[in-house]
Amino acid sequence: MEAILAVFSPDVIFPVLMAMTFGIFVGGLPGLTATMAVALIIPISYYMTPLAGLGMVLGVSFTSIFSGDIPATFLRIPGTPASGAAALDGFELSKKGKGSLALTLDLFCSAIGGLIGILLLILIAPPLADFALQFTNFEYFWLGLFGLSMSAVLSKGNMMKGLTSAVLGLVISTIGIDVTTGFPRYTFGNIELMDGLGFIPVMIGLFGISEVLKRVQQGSSKLQLPPITEKVKISPLEALGIIWKNKWTVIKSAFVGTFVGALPGAGADIAAWVAYGVEKKTSRNSEDFGKGNIKGVIAPTSANNAALGGTWIPALVFGVPGDTITAIVLGAMLMYGLKPGPLIFTETPELVNGIFSIAVIANILLIPIGYLGIKAFALVLKMKTSVVLTAVVLFSMIGSFAIRNSYFDIYVMLIFGLVGFLFERLAIPLAPMILGLILGPMVEDNLRVGLIKTGGSMGEFFTRPISLVLFILIVLVFLGGPVFNLLKKGFTGGKKKE
Amino acid sequence: MNIKNILFGIFLFVLAFLIFYFGWSFPAYKIRGESLPGPKFFPFTLAIVLIMLGVYYIIKSVVMIKMKKLPRDAEIAFEEKFTFEGVKNIVAVVAAIVFFVPIIELLGFILGTIIVSSILMIILNVKVLRSIIYSTILAVMIFLIFGTLFRIPLPEGIIMNIVRG
Question: Model confidence over B41-88: pLDDT tens digits?
């Protein structure tokens, strides 16, 4: 009770509200990620108390992950990588004039998913994190491949093209200094390439600039963004009604999201893809996914905010970051003189309880703040399309530049914009490529370290129980669809004969 | 679409060749005389996968052409035909990005952004006066957010530096 009262003191709640508004704004701008929002709020939070500071980080991460879905839905430009999965069906709904419906559902699912994630964090943190800690290089290798397989299989169209896109993403991830040996690979003496290609300019290029190029190519007569006319208005009560009908999807996705989030290295983006995949695979109308199925919005948006709760499990309990956001959080905690780990629960229980309370309250506050965010973004979309596209180009350029203060990244963004534009003409999905780039180091490092441990033998990658389960899951991901279709064909064929 | 897929298969071959060509000189990784997976291990593995995928696309597309069939994903590919206006617009966007850096370096962020943005909007059929007004609002807004609030160093411009001495 004391923890809750402490949260409502003005020196805590006002900074948290300010950070949440800031998160809506940053996450909603294409190219500015939730990670960037958190990184930018850290210097400000430094001047607050630890509770207020960590509350700001929590608040900004919840709102920015949600608001990343706003441009994803309206423009098919994910505001953050975690919005990639939500963009598939959200944008299709938006094209049908149901953008507001998608985003209202998204908002409630984000809040509910976030709450479930936090409740799971409070209830089952230690055993779940314990399980994740059993993972070694062998399991992390398969886990990375599992995330890639999911995104390859889930992409619209040909599975092989999804796989190719993922492999190309892995190829891009090899540019820069090799972490194991310190040798620069494919840098051609360019200092800017030593750190590798930043995933933010690549992501903005693939998802932002390629979309702009597609639209301007259609000529001024067709220069029109789809969501400007909203045919379907929806009240919050109606949205809650729809969510109630899909309650099991919300709960299932939130559980999946929290679990994936709790695995170190796997954050909200992978959680969203996995939840989307699980929902698609188990749905009776799986062929509707990617064409504007509301479950395709509900599943990933419930999961990505739930994953935030999950990412705090290993971070808070064991001091191991769940994703890039919690990696920054751990840095902030050390800045406050706190030592993340099991002792934090016994030494500063009031702080831990305060963090839990803020997380619950921030998820409830997400609804009104997020609602204002949707309205504000809709105003931007009422502008002439050419103006919006020019603004997207400007924000994309400055967003690519800002992350490393590098002009080089603007040109990287342009190259990947052109790559995305050409690949869409070949029906090659773009999301697996960005995931390949993000997961590349995880897959490569764990494969190589695993092989070094075993002296070059792949045996342990298949004989360890969790590794084997993950490997079987990957095989099922690829074979599951075709085998299921064959069985279905056989079954329906048999029925017809009868 | 089949021809495009064959060209894509060839692109994958070329990419794999480049990965091998530029990675050949990467050093071996040995500890106590034992060869371990070094810097070339992962990219070369990926290059082999790319060659396999390239073979897949080429064989599949040749078979499809012989069978006079289109691949199933042909319908979801972005197939807008290139018109003069479309190409002009694409060139305008690409040029705006290419010249953005030298222009803001020369004229400073705000003035440079207003000029690049206005020209792009005018080419994309926004009226001249509106283009300038919208561009000014955008440039000032971006400057306030990134330059002032986030303290990201935005260029003041060579001209401004000369004026200031």
Answer: 999 999 999 999 999 999 999 998 888 777 766 666 667 778 888 899
B70 lies in the same domain as B113:
no
Q: What is the pLDDT of residues A218-245, one digit of tens each?
A: 776 555 445 445 555 677 788 888 889 8
Based on the domain organization, do B94 and B157 belong to the same domain? yes
d(CA A302, CA A116): 9
Q: Is the pLDDT of residue A195 over 60?
A: yes
For chain B, the domain total comes to 2
Taking the CA of residue B92 and the nearest CA in chain A, the distance in Å comes to: 9
Is residue B25 domain-shared with residue B91, that is, in the same domain? no
Range of the domain at B157: 84-164
3-state secondary structure of A430: coil
- Say yes or no: B57 and B88 in one domain: no
- Calpha distance A137→A325 (Å, rounded): 22
Closest partner CB to B4 (pick from A214, A219, A426): A426
> Residue A100 and residue A93: Cα distance in Å, rounded?
9
CA distances from B24 to A173, A444, B21, B47 (A): 18, 18, 6, 12
**Beta A176-177 vs B34-36: how paired, if at all?**
unpaired
Same domain, B70 and B112: no
How many whole angstroms separate alpha carbon A111 and alpha carbon A247? 13
Residue B23 shares a structural domain with residue B57? yes
For residue A185, give the nearest of B39, B73, B87 by CB distance: B39
- Chain A residue with the nearest C-alpha to that of B134: A387
The residue out of B76, B94, B119 marking a domain boundary is B76
Report yes or no for ipTM above 0.90. yes
Clarify whether residues B70 and B102 are in a common domain.
Answer: no
Task: Return the structure tokens found at A423.
Answer: 């690949």
Residue matched to tokens 């949440």: A20
Q: Are A394 and B113 an interchain contact pair (Cβ–Cβ within 8 Å)?
A: yes
Chain-chain contact of A389 with B124 (C-beta, under 8 angstroms): yes
Q: Do A216 and B29 touch (CB under 8 A)?
A: no
B49, B77, B93 ranked by CB distance to A425: nearest: B77
Token pair in block for residue B31: 């500890």
CA dihedral A220, A221, A224, A226 (to 10 degrees): -150
| Of the residues B76, B107, B126, the one at which a domain ends | B76
Pick from B19, B38, B150: which is nearest to A181 by CB? Answer: B38
Query: How many Cβ pairs within 8 Å bridge chains A and B?
Result: 172
Q: Measured between alpha carbons, how far is B156 from B112 in angstroms, rounded to an integer?
A: 10
Shared-domain flag, residues B90 and B156: yes
Nearest CA in chain B to A172: B43
Residue A130 CA, distance from chain mean position: 24
> CA A157, CA A138: separation in Å to the nearest integer?
31
Dihedrals φ, ψ of A219, to 5°? Answer: 85, 160
Q: Do B76 and A161 touch (CB under 8 A)?
A: no
In Å, how far is A231's CA from the nearest CA of chain B? Answer: 25
* Beta-carbon-side half-sphere exposure of residue A109 (alpha carbons within 13 Å): 40
Q: Which residue has the tokens 């491949």?
A: A145
Rounded Cα distance between A129 and A314, Å, is 5
